[in-house]
Amino acid sequence: MIMDAGQRFDPELPDETRSTSNTDIASVNQHPPCFLNLLLAVQHVFVQCSLLVLVLGVLQQHLLLQDGERERLLSSMLFYSALSTLIQSCLGTCLPLVQAPSLETLIPAVVLTAQIVTEPACRGHCEESEEDILPRANPVRELQGMTVIVGMVQLVLGVTGLSGVVLRHCGPLVIAPLLCLLGFSIYREAALLCSDHWAIAALTVILLVLLSQHLRSYMLPACLSMPQLPVCRMLSLLLPLLSVWALCEVLESFGVLRLRSVSELLPALKTSNTSLPELLRSDPFTVPWLSPPLAAEIGLPLLSVRGMAAGVVAALSSSVSSVGMYLLTARLLGVPPPPAAACNRGLGSQGLGSVVAGLMGAPLGLSSSVPNTCTLGLSQSGSRWTVQLAAILGLALGVSPRLTQLITSVPLAIYGALLSVTYTIAVATGVRYFQFTHIDSGRNIFNIGLAVFMSLVLPHWFLMQTVFINTGMVSVDVLLHSLLTSPVLLVGILAFLLDNTVSGSSSERGLDSAEMEKTGWTSVNSEPGYHQEVELIYESPYLLRRLWKLPWLRTAPFSACRITDDGDVL
Fold this sequence. Notes:
- The chain crosses the membrane at residues 145-166, 173-191, 197-215, 235-257, 410-433, 445-463, 478-498.
- The chain is mainly alpha-helical.
- It has helices at 15-18, 34-59, 69-91, 103-118, 139-159, 162-167, 172-184, 187-194, 198-214, 231-234, 238-253, 262-265, 276-282, 305-333, 340-360, 370-379, 384-398, 401-407, 412-432, 442-464, 474-484, 487-501, 506-509, 514-519, 530-538, 542-548; strands spanning 99-100, 367-368.
- A two-stranded antiparallel sheet has the order 1-2.
- Mean pLDDT is 78; it is low at 1-26, 120-137, 268-282, 522-526 and 566-570.
């Protein structure tokens, strides 16, 4: 059975009811109405900015920035993210994925910058020549070098097909803990932002729940002569954000409300200068209207051994997170899971975006944004055109620090509420994957508990004991400390090793379930019309398909990014 482009795909539905399950989901290839598409794109931009403000707020304490550089850095990060989003949606998985710096790339960056700041100013005696002085004047350049390494590693994982090889051995007992820990990974930061004003955060959450759940089926009145769509659910993040933001502006103008900055919320984030949110609200007229993100303003990336070590860990961690987002997106939109070739293209495109971003001055590598992916589940609107329009808006905002300043001046409590609600979707979807396994098995209970618990305990302990790892080699210290403080990478490694080394039957591991057959990783699906459905969503653009057919590109490694006629990877 071949389904229409706008029809929802659910492997758990029987054949006779699957054709009638065409809900009002905007499919990946569908065009929403123009005005609604614009609102959905603006909603994605606000969610993306919530993550950017948090990431930069944590990173800025380690960067030696001059006054006025923070706004340009934030706008440039938005520009690089938008550029990578366009690359991903056109050349990668072709899923509606938004790219952004994430906590997975932030952790190794913080470890690296901590080493730069705490190292001595010179080797040996300070009266030595200037050539012996370590390059610590501008840590942003070394972060740029780390970003280039992140992109190169991701590019290698994608074009060589290594990620597809690993995916063939990932069952529900690997995917479920990964998604759960991705959802739990931001609870401390989200609580920090909500503590700016708990009443504002609670009001935002209540409105979001009301629109996305209680009013999810509400349609616009027919007298308005507009398409009958569940607008409340589709804009369940944008409407509460704008409403509560307007209320905060009114209360601030009357002196009733005083919102705090990141440095006031967390003393560890205090710097000698004003924090980013406070600066964006207090001195708007010093920010330029136009400032293209050019690497010449900071300098070319600085490659170092310790930067390469941090970049490898950041690349692996962000790759694990991004593959989880590919599966999460397909699950939330009800489309077939991405084949290994699509995941390979996704990581390759993500790596290309990170390399370009690093060469242009980005301090962090890019990965698929978790809150934007979870937004698809809340709004049930997953059109690729919406994400591409959001990327175009991001490019426009990225060249104008003044406009970026305006859109990121949202109170931190509202951003915290958005992150708190969106990340819960990842946790809930991860729990759902347990239904495909024999959850009462003692083997599965032990593997899940050990992988999740150790992935939470180890990073917490090593963050408190920062001097415990001291091998005498800075690059090795950065590598080990970055690895042992990255919970997403740890849970991926532990769950993968335990599931593939501890003996268990295929039914016990969930490998013979309908969900895993749909992935095409364990077996080629023989359902009539299934391969056409996969091609409809994940096939490469026309020019790339012609490129794959060239004789000298039909062999490895490039064949790993091409879907063959039987739906498998060559």
